């Protein structure tokens, strides 16, 4: 239905409500789409935090539609409204309050799930605690919003008997601020330890910590809602808190999506900065420097069964693009089987390319110190049963050059 064109006046704020709600809804949708497309292009997966953002965006669309319909039916107008209009506004406002809290819940949990993927193990208990606080806050707020006024019309805050709604929104907004500060605090504590320049630290903390910019609108909502608590024209004076709620909702979605903008993702993927175990931020076909170092450390560590045997284990770094490899199988230790008289030989396979076959120390040290070459360290251990041939020691050597 196309509404007749209205202009904002001191006595009619309905056009402002409709315009702001529609504009901020579009911004939230674009932010979510940008994040999801960026993740699909760089990671190729639709992860749990992305699913939560998508769900939050759907809730935002429903909430914004309810607010737009309120403006279309007279919310923000100082003129007298008919009973049907008042009833429709109150019901839509009742639904929009619940959807607003649900949207905040989903966006906050998405942020904590993103934190979970980056945080080391010792910080995950704190993330669990924040998620528990968010769940308790949202569930209690939604439950209170459902029964804010007496039955059978819990949405009628104009003519019904309701609890103190200003105190209720102070509770909702105060814990909204606390949870945002908790999420931002963990982010800052994690990224302040980045091994990079101060400018890059500031960039990362600013991008991931932009959630603090939601706090001023939340404080404004507390102030304006308290002002209209005893207003003689609540359906007109509600236009300011309603607009501020749309701003808070949109900023919550944007704060969750801003870190996934393409230029910032490219900066992370280039290896210029890394924060702990930053999963899911590397592009297809490329490895970050931190993951290469971690893989090298894990793969170059000898298995427990070979420690203390005095046998040296050699790992040769090779270029990933090289197809020519040589496999050497050498007897590392021998254990006699008591029952069948079979020897168990534990062997180690070392993968390397032809140019490193000479095991030149210069070549290995240069490749180990290079920050640009991509290397793969391969070490495999398995058991080979060799029938006893009368000798105490058996050696097996196999070479395969592709």
Automatic annotation (TrEMBL):
InterPro entries with a match to the protein in the record: Cyt_c_oxase-like_su1_sf (IPR036927), Rhodopsin_dom_fungi (IPR049326)
Tree of life domain: Eukaryota
Pfam families per the UniProt record, alphabetical: Fung_rhodopsin (PF20684)
Residues spanning the membrane: 16-38, 126-147, 167-190, 202-223, 243-261
Biased composition (Basic and acidic residues): 384-394
UniProt KW Cytoplasm keyword: no
Residue ranges of domain Rhodopsin in the record: 35-265
Xref: Gene3D superfamilies: Cytochrome c oxidase-like, subunit I domain
Comp. bias regions, Polar residues: 283-294, 358-382
Disordered as annotated region, ranges: 276-315, 351-402
GO cellular component terms listed in the entry, alphabetical order: mitochondrion
Assigned keywords, A-Z: Membrane, Transmembrane, Transmembrane helix
PANTHER family xref list: INTEGRAL MEMBRANE PROTEIN
Protein name according to UniProt: Rhodopsin domain-containing protein
């Amino acid at each position: 239905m196309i509404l007749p064109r209205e202009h904002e006046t001191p006595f009619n704020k309905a056009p402002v409500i409709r315009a702001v709600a529609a504009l901020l809804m579009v911004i939230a949708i674009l932010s979510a789409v940008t994040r999801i497309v960026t993740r699909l292009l760089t990671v190729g997966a639709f992860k749990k935090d992305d699913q939560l953002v998508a769900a939050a965006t759907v809730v935002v669309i429903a909430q914004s539609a309810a607010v737009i319909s309120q403006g279309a039916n007279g919310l923000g107008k100082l003129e007298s409204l008919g009973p049907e209009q008042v009833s429709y506004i109150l019901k839509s406002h009742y639904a929009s309050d619940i959807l607003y809290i649900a949207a905040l819940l989903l966006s906050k949990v998405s942020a904590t799930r993103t934190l979970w993927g980056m945080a080391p193990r010792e910080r995950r208990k704190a993330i669990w605690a924040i998620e528990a606080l968010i769940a308790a806050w949202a569930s209690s707020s939604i439950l209170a919003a459902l029964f804010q006024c007496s039955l059978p019309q819990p949405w009628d805050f104009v003519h019904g008997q309701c609890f103190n709604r200003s105190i209720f929104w102070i509770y909702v907004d105060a814990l909204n601020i606390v949870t945002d500060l908790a999420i931002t605090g963990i982010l800052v504590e994690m990224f302040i330890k980045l091994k990079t320049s101060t400018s890059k630290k500031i960039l990362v903390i600013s991008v991931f910590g932009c959630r603090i910019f939601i706090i001023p609108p939340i404080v404004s909502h507390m102030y304006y809602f308290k002002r209209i608590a005893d207003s003689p024209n609540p359906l007109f004076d509600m236009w300011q808190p309603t607009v501020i709620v749309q701003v808070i909702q949109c900023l919550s979605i944007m704060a969750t999506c801003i870190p996934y903008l393409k230029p910032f993702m490219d900066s992370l993927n280039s290896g210029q900065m890394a924060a702990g175990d930053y999963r899911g931020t590397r592009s297809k076909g490329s490895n970050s420097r931190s993951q290469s170092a971690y893989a090298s450390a894990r793969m170059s560590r000898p298995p427990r069964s070979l420690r203390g045997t005095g046998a040296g284990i050699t790992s040769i770094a090779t270029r990933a693009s090289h197809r020519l490899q040589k496999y050497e199988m050498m007897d590392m230790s021998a254990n006699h089987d008591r029952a069948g008289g079979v020897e168990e030989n534990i062997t180690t396979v070392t993968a390397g390319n032809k140019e490193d076959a000479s095991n030149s120390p210069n070549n290995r040290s240069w490749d180990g110190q290079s920050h640009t070459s991509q290397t793969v360290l391969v070490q495999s251990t398995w058991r080979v049963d060799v029938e006893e041939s009368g000798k105490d020691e058996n050696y097996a050597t196999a070479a395969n050059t592709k």
